[in-house]
Amino acid sequence: MVRWSWPSLHMSREHSDSNTRLFSSIKRPDKQMVIESKGLSLWGVFLGALCLLLVSRFLLVRFLPLRRDMIVFPSELEHPLKYGYIRRGCMSKTLCSQCLRAAEAGSWTKERHTQATQDQRIDTLPAIYDELTACLQKDILPLVASLYRFPAEQLGIKEAFIVKYDEHVQCKLDLHRDASILTCSVALNDRADYVGGGTYFPSIEEVITLERAGDMLVHCGKIQHGGYPVKKGVRYLLVCFVVCAAVDILDHREIATWNSAEPSDREVMKRLFLR
Asked: Mind giving me the DSSP string for 178-193?
């Protein structure tokens, strides 16, 4: 009986096994390379997104009006008045609406200040005077005192008035310094009601905006600033000049010259000191 052997088959199996082993030895590193390449791709996407985020943030901060909670003005000293603050919802929308109705029913004037705004003093608006004064005394002044860490009893309101920026009448306010240590500006209508607007500070080259009625911006009144042009619609503000017994000015005779660009905001900070 002839015994058949299957050398070709055995060789084929061995060859197949060796090919399988060889293929496996090649295939596994390929998988690892694919995984590593996917990992590198994910890192590339992450780094690209991070770079895009940083660039976008720079462009937004540099070229668009800002919406943030704290502003730092240039100063060589660690001075409390070098900071400005934005606080949300400092006044109820109901009171804001009442202020608008009372102001529009009154008479606007442009003859009260060196840098005149279209405004009305709140003491000429009896419909809202008591309620608004109570809000300023009970809510606004204590908040300002806590922000700057001044005793609340050392703060007082020198003047409060409602300002109207209208694209057709007065759309902006030139650069100036206020007759106050601190200035509070409360939005009386939403930013969606107008285009443009905001408070421009040349020392930081930025426009600060308030988004909602009742939001407030507070800053040192001696920091140079101006009203950025309203291109469409009407912007309403409640502006309060706040005096502070805890702060004194180095040379009162120079106050009249502070409406100009000189001295710089850095120099202004050197001339304001705490008692």
From this structure: -SSSEEEEEESS-GGG
Delimit the domains of the chain by residue range.
Answer: 1-64, 65-274
For CA atoms 198, 126, 240, 214, the dihedral sign is negative
The length of the chain, given as a count of residues: 275
pTM of the model: 0.72
In the beta sheet, which residues pair with residue 179? none
31, two tokens: 């998988």
**Cα gap 134→5, rounded to integer Å:** 110
Tracing tokens 């690209």 back to the chain, one arrives at 48
Token digits for 39?
Answer: 């990992």
* 69 token code pair: 């909670």
Query: Nearest 5°: CA angle at 143, between 212 and 91?
Result: 30
**CATH for 65-274, among 3.80.10.10, 2.60.120.620, 2.40.30.10, 2.70.20.10?**
2.60.120.620
Each residue's pLDDT tens digit, 94-104: 999 999 999 99
Helix 126-135 vs helix 93-105: crossing angle, to nearest 10: 150
- Residue 216's beta-bridge partner residues? 87, 186
pLDDT in tens, 192-235: 999 999 999 999 999 999 999 999 999 999 999 999 999 999 99
Q: What is the CA radius of gyration of the chain?
A: 33
